[in-house]
Write a structure and sequence with these properties.
By secondary structure, this protein is of the alpha/beta class. It contains 9 helices and 13 strands. Helix 2 packs across helix 3 and helix 4 runs parallel beside helix 5. It is elongated, with a radius of gyration of 23 Å. The structure holds adenosine-5'-triphosphate.
Amino acid sequence: MSEPVIEVSELRKRYGRFTAVDGVSFDVREGEVFALLGTNGAGKTTTIEILEGYLTPSEGTVRVFGQDPAGRHAPRSRIGLVLQESGLFGDLSAAETVTAWSRFTTGARPVAEALALVGLSGQAGTRVKRMSGGERRKLDIALATLGRPGLLFLDEPTTGLDPEARHRVRDLVGELAAGGMTVLLTTHYLEEAQELAGRVAIMDKGRIVTQGTMSEVLGRGSGRVAFELPGGVSPEGLPVGERDTLTVTGRQCVILTAEPESVAHSVLGWAQVRGVRVSGLDVRQATLEEVFLDIAQEVTT
Ligand SMILES: Nc1ncnc2c1ncn2[C@@H]1O[C@H](COP(=O)(O)OP(=O)(O)OP(=O)(O)O)[C@@H](O)[C@H]1O
């Protein structure tokens, strides 16, 4: 197994009496894309800012490339950051922006290569203020990867972009990861995590409520059985196992379960015994979004 690039152990961060991060542990190994997901205010940005060395922990330990990210030996040159707010100058062209950054970056790629890497060769002479939101995000990523970092922090890289630009930026992150870069990603777009990340941790109220490989997290309720009950029929007694969850919205019933085929079978049996017909039976793999909503609901109730 490859070396951990990030190690987080029992991390806590308090702001006065409020605990924003409450005993979080995870690690990220070399070459993997790890997604930190969670509800608003869950503690994702606080965690990532501690890993970037901008904030110090109240308790616990954090190591990036084996070093304290806020310490004297912090491995800054090995880390690329794409923050939620970028600080680009509108009057500079894309090439001028990269050139300016090259002066402060050790071992910077040549400007043309940095632009080509993110697919901006055609916009080299375009002023930042004339660039689209997606192009600016790509330029942010070009700057973050200019010094060929081994680790890239991406804090909500596609928030605020239209769907097409989101796809382009997503493809770019996928390509960087395929090239061997380790990536820690926070995002509100679960399909983005599902597409890019090998492992995920889902945070809620400062804690990690579940983490693992995408298939392990999805495996919590890996199957989804949906169907409609006829009007006036109560869902009472539906075959829902202890680890399954049932959501009823009007006549629509959804069961998240690890064993969708057997649950679907039992639902049909349940209906037959009662002499009713369920319609629109749909059995498939649950999406991360469905699992996430299920977990968020479980945690808040
Ligand atoms: N400097 C601060 N002082 C007091 N509370 C803070 C401070 N910074 C963050 N918080 C609180 O800590 C909690 C976690 O915030 P954080 O920004 O880490 O969440 P997040 O998961 O990134 O949320 P979002 O998805 O909304 O960006 C929030 O309740 C926030 O209000």
